[in-house]
Backbone:
């Protein structure tokens, strides 16, 4: 296992998704991660207990009331021994906890900070979640919710990058901001540039890139390059790769059968995974 962050201490008070995901990656890169949660715990432990347990493996979790004097003293001692503090609270909330930027720079001059916010700059106090950040960028179709937390997870990786950059530079007292709305905007670049619009190359414009029905399910095909198109022809047993020909061929077999054939020919075709049941569903 690569441990480039061995010997580095990260303190985090970030809850829900992006913060814990980022800190789990930092842990896997060798950092010592110390997490402070409120007495009621992290809501993620209620929403997705198995995921919470996975993300907090080998994380030193402390339950502290940061609104109390005892809690403030304890978090101060943890920050004294840390290299990086990861937060995911709005600036006003951090101020009430005595963890605002000015206070941190005064009391913990060695400490670098990575603040996860919804919107950057003057809009940092605006509330939001993954769904709203994606919706602002045209990445949500009515009425179904997205099946993953794209902005949160990509934001977590941005946090990891920022921490690595800070430690690589041996920075002290540097504080950076990761705005999830900006992450969503970056994820929307293919849409803005026309690649994934309904008629764009990756949005339905090419018959060799899309989702098709089979005899018992659906498959995804991504055969843009010529060599992959030849492999798809061999898989389907057709000379033409127009939309009607592909659609007709695929309906003659089941999705898993097509995936096995595609593997034999080296074609980028996979069966759509069935959506897993949520915990507690029968």
Residues:
């Amino acid at each position: 296992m690569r441990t480039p962050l061995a010997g580095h201490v990260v303190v985090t008070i970030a809850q829900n998704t992006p913060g814990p995901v980022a800190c789990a990656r930092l842990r896997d890169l060798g950092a010592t991660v110390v997490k402070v949660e409120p007495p009621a715990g992290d809501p993620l432990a209620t929403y997705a207990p198995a995921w919470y347990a996975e993300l907090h493996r080998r994380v030193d979790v402390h339950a502290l009331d940061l609104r109390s004097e005892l809690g403030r003293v304890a978090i101060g001692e943890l920050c004294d021994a840390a290299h990086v503090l990861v937060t995911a609270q709005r600036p006003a909330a951090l101020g009430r906890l005595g963890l605002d930027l000015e206070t941190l720079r005064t009391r913990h001059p060695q400490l670098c900070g990575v603040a996860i916010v919804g919107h950057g700059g003057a809009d940092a106090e605006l509330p939001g979640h993954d769904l709203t950040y994606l919706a602002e960028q045209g990445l949500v179709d009515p009425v179904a919710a997205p099946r993953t937390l794209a902005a949160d997870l990509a934001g977590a990786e941005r946090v990891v990058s920022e921490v690595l950059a800070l430690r690589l530079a041996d920075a002290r007292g540097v504080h950076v901001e990761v705005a999830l709305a900006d992450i969503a905007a970056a994820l929307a670049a293919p849409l803005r540039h026309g690649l994934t619009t309904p008629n764009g190359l990756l949005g339905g414009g090419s018959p060799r890139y899309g989702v098709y029905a089979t005899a018992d399910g659906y498959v995804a095909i991504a055969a843009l390059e010529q060599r992959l198109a030849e492999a798809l022809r061999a898989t389907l047993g057709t000379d033409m790769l127009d939309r009607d020909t592909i659609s007709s061929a695929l309906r003659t077999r089941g999705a898993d059968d097509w995936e096995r054939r595609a593997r034999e020919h080296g074609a980028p075709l996979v069966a759509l995974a069935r959506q897993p049941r949520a915990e507690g569903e029968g």
In short: Residues 39 and 49 are 17 Å apart (CA to CA). The domain at 201-271 is CATH 3.30.1540.10 (formyl-coa transferase, domain 3). The chain has a mean pLDDT of 96. The chain has two domains: 9-190, 201-271.
